Amino acid sequence: MATSDCDIAVVGTGIVGLAHALEARRKGLTVTLIERDHRCVGASIRNFGFVTVTGQGAGDTWNRARRSRDVWAEVAPAAGIAIEHRGLWVLARRPEARAVLEAFLRTEMGAGCEVLEPAEAARRAPWLRAEGAAGALWSPHELRVESRDAIPRLTAWLEAERGVRVLRGECALGVEPGAVRTTRRTVRAGRVILCPGTDLTGIAEPWLRHHEIRLCRLQMLRVRPRGGAPLGSAVMSDLGLVRYRGYAALPEAGALRRRLEAEEEESLAHGIHLIAVRSADGSLVVGDSHHYDATPEPFAREDVDRLILRHLGEAVSAGGFEVTERWTGVYPTMDAGDALLLAPEPWLRVAVVTSGTGASTAFGIAQETMADA
Hints:
- The protein is an alpha+beta fold.
- Helix content is 31%, strand content 31%.
- The chain is elongated.
């Protein structure tokens, strides 16, 4: 078997692995990325590409998201990644939802945000269906990239411009002090970082088995607005306020949850909340739902898609939508937090984002993991 030498070997080329490769190169370290597939096909390209700051859980997640947003803003132009749009509108359709937004505004995480009356929100964002709403929150902090383009572009840039070696189509079989064994070679490295994503039973299993991690399957759609919907920023609505921890942890969220349980029982049962973002061609990426299992089934349900589209129609004015693509995504999750960062040995790190916040927090996580490198 061939042998390679580097300072850092990273297993996994999803956004978490790429973030660690970037941070290592910024420290002047040599990096080898090891990827079992020939290109990234997992959660990192199946999401919204929505780098979300506002609404993230207070503390670590929110701080990581702010740092990650800044890294995205710096790296995207260098890597040829278009920032499709910036900012976030959260449309409050119920008075209880507005109360949550106003409470959020009073926290440190609400800095720079505004809660607007429906008429002012409609003036500034004509695509919002603000009639009859209770108000809307505007956040300037977010940015959006096209995940399926951004991840391969970031990988190619790291490889061509930053000197990262990428080994594709090689499964990592085992890890030991100073080395990773793959199906083709032994990669010798001073430190090994495992970023297994959804591969919870693979090379990282010995360190993950004692943590209650399961997988979450979500349904996503790409739609084309029939009447046009410029959607200059991301859009969310009431259901997100009882799901995103930065809102849901507020005392005011209790009244909203009780009302939603009475009015949106089916959507809550499927873990649905609305996110809509725009692509360069004018289409929208829309989702999503959340179903949990140790091994999620791969089959999407039409009734769940219809619920997602109904919520889209309630928040965005477009004269209807034509579905052009459907897909499912899977990511790890656990109740204890949004990320699991382990240092079981001086030479070994394990990093798993245990929530849907990978694109939003990966660069911040890598900064923490690599702080002592």
